[in-house]
Amino acid sequence: MTAVLLPGRPHIAYRDNELFVEQAALGALAREHGTPLFVYSRASMLSALAAYQRGFAGRRARICYAMKANSSLAVLQLFARAGCGFDIVSGGELDRVLAAGGKAGDVIFSGVGKTRAEMRRALELGIACFNVESEAELEVLSEVAMALGRTAPVSIRVNPDVDPKTHPYISTGLKGNKFGISQERTLEAYRRAAALPGLKVVGIDCHIGSQITEDGPYLDAMDRILDLVEAIEAHGIPLQHIDFGGGLGIAYNGDEPPAADALWARLLQKLDARGFGDRELLIEPGRSLVGNAGVCVTEVLYLKPGENKNFCIVDAAMNDLPRPAMYQAFHGIVPVTVTVVNDCDKRSWEVVGPVCESGDWIGHERELSVKSGDFLAVLSAGAYCMSMASNYNTRGRAAEVLVDGARTHVIREREKSADQMRMEKLLP
Ligand code: LLP
β-strand 9-15 against 3-6: which pairing, if any? Predict the structure, then answer.
């Protein structure tokens, strides 16, 4: 048997020309459960987490999975069991953490627009920290905490103004982004937070962007944050933890992001050199824990070769895989079964979905040898796909399967039309 690995995806490989996730053949899964179908490798998620855990060995560090990347309950359960905390951005995400068996005490709450109701619930449940993004939010949080007779643990999200060199929609740490408080205002904001009766300052945080593939932006951000920590503590406000956010990229298309342990070896070296080696650390990785653990299997419905372009119409669409339409993102697309063909059978295809928009494309100019009824696997579909999926065109959301060795678990049933209509009411 010949096994051919896909680069950057250790648990997804061809065996005898059939694509497998761990020991599960994708073709068989697609026939059994239908398509589009998200399939995840448990071992990939755990090995991605292990790289961070190795990087932090012997340190006081907490890994808070940024669950917006993939918030399916079984995925959260897996990370909770593996010892992760969670970075949430809504009350809904908090409900999911609890439903998956996570603890509120392991949750940090980020986001620029927390509502009073969300703050109240998070305070009552006793979350670990609020990552506060504006001075106005500090005031409101203090008020809400006072009314409950509680003290809110807070960290202020600083915008360190470094360029993460990524897509503008997912860069967050530059001036001109809506996120965090500017470095110039940080000290003042901390003084305000320390003086507010409903708050207890516990940390500082930053998150500079997503799909970062170099270590330079992280090293720059760390220097800026540590400068601020020194200034804040010099004003008598101690900080228990430093949270460096998430953002580490994955290999979508030949990108070569640093490995999590290698990146952290360099960052910890800087931290040690600047005398902060024993400070409690938090990080909020999302994509790098789940992105390359997942694929989306889709069936080729129709081929429509044309004069200018050849369209390969598949049954997955922008409602399942929104990243190409939203960010012009690249996802690898590979056959689930490799048939032996000579190269002239190959053509360049526009791989598109059934949604009624020209923006509904999955891949441009892909060299594939395909026929109707074939299954294709869209790669790197573990992060920001199902969690961003919608019902546009009244398409039910796809089913999800988690593979664990030779065992497979359906972790989400395919959504039916009745599920979609359940909350709606006809006029009298
Ligand atoms: N922490 C905060 C405060 C965040 O806003 C994010 C992501 C993360 C952590 C996790 O970042 P990661 O490790 O996943 O890069 N939908 C876009 C990505 C949006 C990222 C939003 N914030 C995409 O599909 O590329």
Answer: antiparallel
**What string of DSSP letters covers 74-106?**
HHHHHHHHTT-EEEESSHHHHHHHHHTT--GGG
Q: Is-catalytic flag, 344?
A: no
pTM above 0.70, yes or no: yes
Assess whether the C-beta atom of 209 lies below 6 angstroms from ligand 1.
no
Check pocket membership of 90 for ligand 1, CB cut-off 6 A. Answer: no
Predicted pLDDT at 174: 67
Peptide bond into 197 cis (omega under 30): no
Torsion of CA 174, 175, 180, 185, to 10 degrees: 140
Query: Is the minimum distance from the CB of 87 to ligand 1 under 6 angstroms?
Result: yes
Q: What is the DSSP string of 178-233?
A: SSSEEHHHHHHHHHHHHH-TTEEEEEEE---BSSB--SHHHHHHHHHHHHHHHHHH
In the block, which residue shows the tokens 């059994």?
A: 32
**Residue 385 CA: which ligand 1 atom is closest?**
24
Length of the chain: 428
Cβ contact 156:179 at 8 Å: no
Structure tokens at 347: 């053509």
Rounded distance between C-alpha atoms, residue 96 and residue 73, angstroms: 7
346 pLDDT tier (thresholds 50, 70, 90): confident
Q: Is 323 in the pocket of ligand 1 (CB under 6 A)?
A: yes
- Nearest CA to 338 out of 15, 6, 74, 83 is that of 15
For 117, list phi and psi in degrees, rounded to 5: -65, -40
Judged on CB neighbours under 10 Å (0-12, 13-18, 19+), 275 is: exposed
Q: Whose CA is nearest to atom 16 of ligand 1?
A: 384
CA dist., res. 151 & res. 154, Å (int): 9
Give residue 339's pLDDT.
86
